[in-house]
Amino acid sequence: MNWNELGLKIAKEIEKDVMPYFGKKEGAKIVGYSPSGDTTELVDRISEDIVLKHLKPLNVNIVSEETGTIDNNSEWTVVIDPIDGSFNFTTGFPCFGFCFAVFKDNNPYYGLTYEFLTKNTYEAFAGKGAFLNGEKIKVKEYNEKEAVISYYSRKNLNLIGKVRRVRIMGAFGIEMAYVARGALDGIFDIRPYVRTTDIASSYIICKEAGAIITDENGDEFKFKFDLNATDRYNIIVANDEKLLNMILEEIK
Ligand code: IPD
Ligand code: CA
Q1: What global pTM score does this model have?
Q2: What is the pLDDT of residues 103-120, one digit of tens each?
Q3: Measured in angstroms, how far is the CA atom of residue 197 from the centroid of ligand 2?
Q4: From the CB of 172, is ligand 1 less than 6 Å away?
Q5: High-pLDDT (> 70) share of the chain, %
Q6: Model pLDDT, residue 227
Q7: Is 64 helix (H, G, I), strand (E, B) or coil?
Q8: What is the Cα 38 distance to its own chain's centre?
C-alpha cells in the first residue's frame, strides 16, 4: 500500500469538499456526537465520510475522531483526524488541517499532516526522516532567548517571560508539525485533553525531525496499546533537553 499517496489523496478530496465552508456558520451545524462526547459538525461528517469511503474497502483497523474504532483484526491501524482545529475552521481562523497516521502492529509507521490553506504537506516514514513538501526538515536549534512555544494547561502557568514568544493556535496536530519544521521550539498539553487522533501523525513527523517527546513527568511518551479515539494524553514536545527541563520545572 502506498500510504503516502493514499493519505494525500484523501486530504485533497476533503479539501475540495470542505473548503467552501471555511469560516461559514453552515459548516458548524451539529449533526451528531463523537465517541469522546464532542459535537460532530457538518464539516466533520463530510470529511469523515470521505475517509471511510477510502479506508473501509482496505479492511484495516480504523481509528477516527468522529466514528471511533473499527477493528478489522488487521496488522495495520490508520488513525485519522479529518479536521484538526475544527473550531478554527468554522470561525475562519486559518490554522487547521488533516492528520493521517499509520501504525503496523501498533508501532508508528507513517505520518502525514496536511494544511489545507498553505497546502503544506508534512510527512515521515518511521526511521526515514521528516519532510515538508519533499524537503527534509529538522527541529530548530534551541536558544532560550529566541524560543517560541505553545501550551495548553489548566494550571495558571506563565511562560511568557521564559521564552521569546508564546503562540497558541488551537490545532495541536498542526502546531506539532510546526515544531518539526522549526517554527515552534516546543508545545505541550497537560490538561490532559489531546487524543490519539490529534497527535499521531505529527508524533511520527516530530520524532523523525529530532524532537524529544515525553509525558508530564519527562518520561518517554508512549501511545496506549489499545489505540482509540477517546483516551486523552499529557504530552510535551521539545526541540531540546534544556527546553524540556524548563517546561518540566514550570509544570511541577
Ligand atoms: C482540537 C485541537 C485543539 C486541541 C484540542 C483538540 P479538533 O482538535 O487540536 O488544539 O486543544 O484538544 O481536540 O477537535 O479541532 O480536531
Ligand atoms: Ca477534528
Answers
A1: 0.96
A2: 999 999 999 999 999 999
A3: 8
A4: yes
A5: 100
A6: 86
A7: strand
A8: 17
Collect contacts of 123-127 with beta carbons under 8 A, ≥24 apart: 123/4, 123/7, 123/205, 124/180, 124/204, 124/205, 124/207, 124/208, 124/209, 125/4, 125/208, 126/204, 126/207, 126/208, 127/208
DSSP state of 147: -
Residue written as grid cell 489548566: 154
User: Are 98 and 31 spatial neighbours (Cβ–Cβ below 8 Å)?
Assistant: no
Q: Which amino acid is at 108?
A: P
Q: What span, in angstroms and rounded, lies between the C-alpha atoms of 139 and 159?
A: 20
- Pick from 84, 86, 169, 197 the residue to mutate for probing ligand 1's pocket: most ligand atoms within 8 Å of its CB: 84
Q: Could you tell me the three cell numbers for 149?
A: 512555544
As a whole number of angstroms, the distance between CA 221 and CA 231 comes to 14
Residue type, 153: S
Q: What cell was used for 17? A: 469538499
* Nearest-ligand number for the alpha carbon of 14: 2
* pLDDT single digits (tens) 5-25: 999 999 999 999 999 999 999
